[in-house]
């Protein structure tokens, strides 16, 4: 048999979670091998990290398809993932360096009646860490977990007995005009977003979690993303050359976060204090864009390219004046400009917390679905659009419904993948992300 079996996975994860004991008694070897502590973000918190955390420079976003047979196995996976993520965020190896397999590890988990020969994966599968970030600080690593619709219902089946607990807000995203979603880059039962100030640290975290999940879940799609360096005090630019992130609800305003980001009393108890993430891989026709005059590019967004100021304004922080007209009576910020269509003022006050990253997968001359007839593009590059919100129906969906139909930018971008996931609140030390979903009676 290649790879650990599901039973092996459960034994391994239960053992790993028990063995890690979260903060309890790390083995000596573990302490010796741990990475030097640099900048860290807290892991155990009321909310998961990576949502209102000041944006790191890199992300690795992955979704997983579950192969686990039971809800208990999914809960064991979340327990193991939580323990490993807490360790990684603190700059430790993903799992404690246990040395030779402790006989206790090989013991059947409580309630298992399968006899003595429980097949625990060998030393390779139980290795504490793949090692490529040893010697590196945590680089402000955060790991944010989400649950897709497939955890609750798959092919019409309530496969884990959780269907009744699916939040109303975890809808199936509608197909928007212009969507060219590729099945292989869309959806997933679970999402994991690692963010860090180093790309290897972000990738490493997801890689450890994928390894730990063997037999219970496997990666469906993944996308690495980046932001430019050395712009910490300034809004970073996306690959179209525009400052991206100017207008966003303030993460320092708890009232705004409560109103627009954190799920409240309308949500099932297990989701309160959580948030919903929409991720979209948006490919840009950069060759096409690069042939456009700057003035046209500015019309497209309704902002100046270099300063980031709204058209008609002077500096980036000026609020866009959506009523201002030119001498001919036409709007200075065009009716189909991105910022007009996306603004809260034109969307019934809808707001989302955007945390986008650029992506660059090289060039792609072969994609069957690309380029659409009206564009030419060989770069497989664009925006990994990520936004968090209290309810996607009054957030992303409400805003994007209009953008998808009317946005002038649509001739340069195409949505080719993504998903919607319910991100539960944070966990207390010793608990795990999503615990209240699985343990609720
Ligand atoms: C490749 C795709 C996209 C690019 C390049 C892009 C770029 C931009 C830029 C440059 C701005 C102006 C600066 C700022 O306020 O951050 C902006 C604003 C905004 N975008 Fe996008 N965006 C994209 C997709 C989306 C999508 C899919 C949504 C949501 C459904 C969205 C929602 C918004 C919102 C809410 C604003 C603020 C509008 C305001 O109140 O002024 N964007 N975007």
Can you describe this structure?
Strands 5, 6, 7, 8 and 9 form a five-stranded antiparallel beta sheet that branches. The chain has a four-stranded antiparallel beta sheet with strand order 2-3-1-4. Residues 1-37 and 100-125 have low confidence and may be disordered. With 441 residues, it is an alpha+beta fold. The radius of gyration is 23 Å and the shape is globular. Helix 1 packs across helix 3. The relative contact order is 0.18. The two termini are 37 Å apart. The chain has eleven helices and nine strands. It has helices at 6-20, 28-33, 71-89, 103-106, 199-212, 254-260, 286-289, 294-301, 338-342, 396-406, 435-439, and strands at 58-66, 142-147, 190-196, 217-226, 275-284, 353-354, 357-363, 379-389, 413-423. The chain has one domain. 22% of the residues lie in helices and 17% in strands. Bound molecules: protoporphyrin IX containing FE.
* Main sheet specs: 5 strands, antiparallel
Chain-averaged pLDDT: 86
Give the amount of beta strand, in percent.
Answer: 15-25%
Instruction: Provide the helix percentage.
Output: 10-25%
- List cofactors, ions and other ligands: protoporphyrin IX containing FE
Instruction: Report the principal-axis shape.
Output: globular
Our count of domains comes out at 1
Q: What letter string, H or E per element, gives the SSE order? A: HHEHHEEHEHEHHHEEEHEH
Number of strands: 9
The tally of helices reads 11
Radius of gyration: 23 Å
Catalogue the unreliable spans.
1-37, 100-125
Distance between the termini: 37 Å
